[in-house]
Amino acid sequence: MLQTTAFWVLAGGAVVAGAMVFRFDSMARATYALLLSLLCVGGEVLLLGLDYLGVVIVLMMTIEMAIMAVFMVMYMMNPAGFMPMSMLHNKQGAAAICALVFVALCAGILLAPWPQREGTPAPDPTMALGMSLMGPQMLTMMTLGMALFATIVATVVLATHRGRYDRFGDDLSRRSPDDPVRGGGR
Fold first, then answer.
1. pLDDT digits 0-9 by tens, 63-107
2. Which residues contact 141 (CB under 8 A, 6 or more apart)?
3. 8 A C-beta contact, residue 44 and residue 10
């Protein structure tokens, strides 16, 4: 009963938050509504017992939306994307396409000959999912993930030409900091 209630609450939250993406008139609010919708989807995946995939969805979407918010603050003309703007173009055409796709998806759900389960579920669904996605290449993908992470860290380190202690010299003997803009304290 609790799992069923959680399913319907998360499903409703995902749909409502997804619809709010198109109702809000600012990029920042639309971003947070999209984040909420995707977090609800991650919760649904967790309810299905796919813990790894659910956590990956939650982490990936949270980081993606945070990065999008940072870029909105940096590059948008309006402050932080809070100024009103239209999020829709060709409203009638978009509404017609959405209605058509919704009807087609509902028809597919209701009319598809869904297969019956054969056998029992795997004892570890996460391992079974990993093996079905990656097969024998799981170690390769894990190593590649660590290599990509090390590359990101190294890039950030190399891109920062001065650290917090560089201002006081290599041996930290300088009494006042060598700041490009005066006013920095110790």
1. 888 888 777 777 766 665 566 666 567 888 988 999 999 999 999
2. 134
3. yes
Chain segment 11-27, per-residue pLDDT in tens: 999 999 999 988 887 77
Q: How far apart are CA 15 and CA 20, in angstroms?
A: 9
Task: At 89, list the tokens.
Answer: 């173009």
Give the amino acid at 108: G
pTM for this predicted structure = 0.53
Residues in the chain: 186
DSSP string computed for 71-123: HHHHH-SSGGG-S-----SSHHHHHHHHHHHHHHHHHHHHHS-PPPP-S---S
Per-residue burial over 79-117, b = 16 or more CB atoms within 10 Å of its CB, e = otherwise? eebeeeeeeeeeeeeeeeeeeeeeeeeeeeeeeeeeeee
Distance CA 62, CA 64 (A): 5
Dihedral pair phi/psi, residue 38, rounded to 5°? -70, -30
**Residue 57 CB neighbours (<10 A):** 19
SS (HEC) of 115-141: CCCCCCCCCCHHHHHHHHHHHHHHHHH
